[in-house]
Protein: glutaminase
Organism: Winkia neuii BV029A5
Amino acid sequence: MKAQVLPGTRQSGSGPTIGVLALQGGVAEHAQMLSDLGATVRLVRKEADLESHLDGIVLPGGESSTIDRLLKIFNMKQLLADLLADGLPCLATCAGMILVSRKVLDAAPGQTSLGVLDTTVSRNVYGSQTASAEVTLDTTLGPVRGAFIRAPKIVRVGEDVQVLARRMPEQGGLEEDGDIVAVRGNNIVALSFHPELTGDATFHTDLLNRLA
Ligand SMILES: NC(=O)CC[C@H](N)C(=O)O
């Protein structure tokens, strides 16, 4: 694994400030990738980290029910939902995608989502950790290599949500015409998979290109 990016190692003011929600999950790889692309990375661990200006935010993978619980414990959930509803550019991967979705079919007891993206997701549809797979997907941004790890699938998209990629049956997809695994609704791009674990910077570059 690459060296973890720590606050002191970043050149502040050198690029847009991108938050990476850092309560649980795969934070370091996103932070490294954004930093390599010239962004100033802020690890978001408390409400104050959301209160000062961010140009964009990454919601990483991990365990969505745990991240949800920590957002509630640290009193960050409403502010994060408001920022996203107000248009903060966002890249959400895996558990992050579950977090932004309007509806989670198989939520853990007490688990709620931010409900800011008009999608319905189903968790863990591809099996356990041992069923993890790396796949090169044909996306609207070109080929993207992603890792599926206890990944969710999008089972419904709203009218204003654009499909960016499908996982086809020969890639481990479950539906005949492919499973929806990448979407965009306004300011939010959500992926079922992890591009940061394969070193594919396509969607991180896209995030930086989407900043106001
Ligand atoms: N790699 C991941 O982020 C897995 C997500 C996990 N299955 C969840 O429900 O949160």
About this structure: The radius of gyration is 16 Å. The first strand starts at residue 17 and ends at 21. Residues 1-12 have pLDDT under 50 and may be disordered.
